[in-house]
Amino acid sequence: MSKSIFYHAGCPVCVSAEQDIVNLIGAKNVEVVHIGEDRSRIAEAEKAGVKSVPALVTANGHTLHINFGASMEDVKG
Amino acid sequence: MSKSIFYHAGCPVCVSAEQDIVNLIGAKNVEVVHIGEDRSRIAEAEKAGVKSVPALVTANGHTLHINFGASMEDVKG
Quick one: pLDDT at residue B1? Predict the structure, then answer.
């Protein structure tokens, strides 16, 4: 089973949620991707169903939008 | 450290998110509370900052709204 992936864009809501998710599931179980900086991952996030950040895509492909920091449209600018 | 608490109201979005959260953090680390059935816990959830369900309140008191099933107003009816 692959890791979960936490997509964020560096916003305050994102940073807070990242700390909570890492505390809850463990840093080794989650890949953290900053799609504001690593824009090559935006398409992958959208394909996984990410509509806003922060969001966690589980290893089995479920997308959990966690609170609300920014829409993907905002991230894409 | 106390457990995280997952508040939900039995909606399809809630049930799906509950399965994901239990898979991610382990059933022993989370108390699952159905505030549609156990209405005595609604006030506690609101005090923790829960605005909609499903939501996870971490052991350190951070509230993570996960996707969107129903607002607290909907739950209170």
Answer: 52
Yes or no, beta carbons of A24 and B23 under 8 Å apart: no
**In chain B, which residue's Cα lies nearest the Cα of A4?**
B24
Name the strand (E) or helix (H) holding B67. Answer: strand B63-71
Sign of CA dihedral A50, A55, A57, A62: negative
Residue B37 pLDDT: 96
Count chain A–chain B contacts defined by CB atoms under 8 A.
39
Rounded (5°) CA angle B6-B62-B55? 30
Q: Which residue is it, tokens 């807070």?
A: A16
Regions of chain B short of the pLDDT cut 50: none
> What does pTM read for this prediction?
0.94
Which whole number is the average pLDDT over A1-14?
92
Phi, psi of A54 (to 5 degrees): -75, 150
**ipTM for the whole predicted complex goes beyond 0.90:** yes
Instruction: Name the packing angle between helices B12-25 and A12-25 (round to 10°).
Output: 60
Q: How many residues does chain B have?
A: 77
A51 close to A72: Cβ distance less than 8 angstroms: yes
pLDDT at A1 over 80: no
CB atoms < 10 A from the CB of A77, how many? 6
